[in-house]
Every structure is written in C-alpha cells, then in structure tokens.
Amino acid sequence: SFESAEEEYQGQTKRKRIRRKKQKSSLQNSNNLHGEQTESGMQETLVQDNFQLQQIHSPKISKNRKRKMKKKRQKEKMRAAGLVTKTTGVDFTYQPDKNNREEAAGLKDIDEKADSILDFLQATQQIYFADNKSECMDSAVNSATAQELLQYLESRTISSSDVTLLHQLKSLVLLQDIERLKDALKQFQEQSMMPPDHTKIVTSLFHYWITDILPVKNRK
Question: Could you say which residues form the signal peptide (predicted)?
C-alpha cells in the first residue's frame, strides 16, 4: 500500500542520513586525528629544534665556536694584510716517497758492498793463514776471529760506516794503489766501530796485501 511504501522510503532516507552523519563524523575524527598527529609532529620537531638550539648555544660549545671564529677572523685579517699565504703542501706530499726510495737505494748499496767484501776477505784469509803469516802477529789475529768477522759481515751485524770503509780498502787493493791503501788503512783503524780483535784481523789481512801480494803483482 501507499502508506507502507512511504514509511519504507522515509526509513531508507533516515538510514542514509545516519550513514552520512557517521561518515562525516568519522571523516572529521580522522581529520582531527591527522591534525592532532600533525600538531604533535610539529611539536616534536619544535622540541628537537629547541634542543639542538640549546646544544648549539650551550656555554661550552659557544665558547669553542667563539674561539674558532676569532682565530678565523684573525687569519682572514692577516691574509688580507699579506702576512699569511695559503700553504699548498705539494713538495711535502712527494717528500716521503723520495726519502723511502733513497733509503732503499742506500740499503741495497750497503748490502751489495757487504757481499763483495765478504767474498774478498774470505779469499784473503784463506791465503793469509795458509802462508802462516799469522804466527808472527798478535794472538787476537787467528782463524777463529777471522771466521767470526766473516759471520758478522754475512749476518749484517756490522755498521754501514764500517762497510763503507772496508769497501774503500778493497777498491784500493783492486786499483793496486799501495800508498793510498796505507792511508786508508790508518783511517780505518781510527774510525772503525768494530771490536778491537776484528779491527786487528782486518788490518792484518789488508797489510798482507801491501807487504806480500801487491809488490809481487807489481814486479810482474
């Protein structure tokens, strides 16, 4: 009937209105909630900002900053006056490498010299002791001492300055320059850092070249 149809229509309309109200109120709630969240987020950000500002302006940091700024201003004034120039540091960058290369080359040179002296003295001491020249020499000059000296050379427990002096003596022997060899031997005795018995054996071996080997070579 018409009345029942009208009642049903009004009921539907009422339900729609309620639904709309509900949707509207939920939308408002969500907006309010979002607003609250945004507001709380903003408040949180503001709190963080305030905290950071407090940190920045805390007495300890601001004192540091003031000092740094003061230094910076002083540098700028001095630079403007031409009293300070910016350091480039280009030369310094390559200096360590250069030093390392020179040091490595120096060590290699000493190593090669020590090897050549070792071979030379080994051969000399064999001839020297076979020729019984040690009999009229000091008791410190014996084959055991000579072997000890050779071991020192082999293990490199000998100063680089002594290696240089020994290499100079060996070079003068090869040049057969007896006079200069005598002078170099005196220099070696004065400057050597070896133990006294090692210095004596070296002196004896090179003296043997001066007195017995080189004069014979020169006569030939």
Answer: none
Asked whether the beta carbons of 169 and 208 are under 8 A apart, the reply is no
**Residue of 9, 210, 35 whose CA lies nearest to 124:** 210
Let me know how long the chain is.
220
Q: Which residue has the tokens 């070579």?
A: 217
CB contact at 8 A, 150 and 191? no
Q: What is the pTM assigned to this prediction?
A: 0.53
Tens of pLDDT, residues 170-185: 999 999 999 999 999 9
In which residue are the tokens 């220099």 written? 187
The pLDDT tens digits of the residues spanning 51-92 come to: 555 555 555 567 777 777 777 777 776 666 655 555 444 444
Which tokens go with 124? 């000399």
Q: How far apart are CA 186 and CA 209, in angstroms?
A: 15
Which amino acid is residue 95, in one-letter code?
Q
